[in-house]
Amino acid sequence: MFSRIWTGTSTAASSDLTGRLCDALDAADAVVVGAGAGLSASAGLTYSGERFERYFGDFQARYGIRDMYAGGFYPFETLEEYWAWWSRQIMVNRYTKAPKPVYEDLLALVRDRDCFVLTTNVDHQFQLAGFDKQRLFYTQGDYGLWQCSGPCHQETYDNEETVRKMFAEQRDMRVPAELVPRCPRCGRPMTMNLRCDDTFVQDAGWHAAARRYEDFLRRHRGGRVLFLELGVGGNTPAIIKYPFWRMTLENRRAVYVCVNQKEASAPAELRKQTICIPEDIGAVLSACCGRR
What we know:
Elements: E1 5-7, H1 14-27, E2 30-35, H2 37-42, H3 49-63, H4 68-71, H5 79-93, H6 102-110, E3 114-119, H7 125-129, E4 136-138, E5 141-148, E6 157-158, H8 160-169, E7 190-194, H9 204-219, E8 225-230, H10 241-250, E9 255-259, E10 265-267, E11 274-277, H11 281-290
């Protein structure tokens, strides 16, 4: 479908590109936000460096774990250790708001537009910032949900109450044995509701969100739609990036915007409909808010 890719290493000044984004927002009848890990990183939810050492320095010293992503796959010997790790990760990334107001700035920019969010992020920061839950589709899961590790059934379970207890009561990188969660139906250990393999549970809420997203796209097909891609990398391009390219190509009234400090690019066929901004997402959104 696409012959080649061009990057956003434009000679245009950053302020000019931000101005074009503001104009595109003003002209749009609908905005589809596609959010990847880069958005949360810009908001301060970094998985390595000082923030990792602050929350997981003891795990780093004992197990040699280097960042939060790697820790999620570490083969802990006991479930008590496993949930000590995960309860911390969930608390600092799901039940704590991001330290920078990037999500709030995004909400301010799209609040008066018909908007829907498609995201591969699992940290719930959109809702914490005030986005309408009915306009969010978390395709890859949610740190706030557990599922049976089997799984023996297609349901998920809210984990906030137990996670807060785990976080408060863990000692020496272990949670109390009585807090280890088990499936209420088969007794297997529970696990995170994250899309890591073919055991991922897509529950009724997941399917309802998928339908709302498809309905939103159907209502605005052929209209003045802004596809606003924020911090989406190359790990799962088939979820956000490629569909945004395809829908922009099929709709000459659509605009595709890619804000990505390292990977701002688009197909050459879309060049006239595209704004690529190779800058920090938070800085771009803040500057755009400043123009309102």
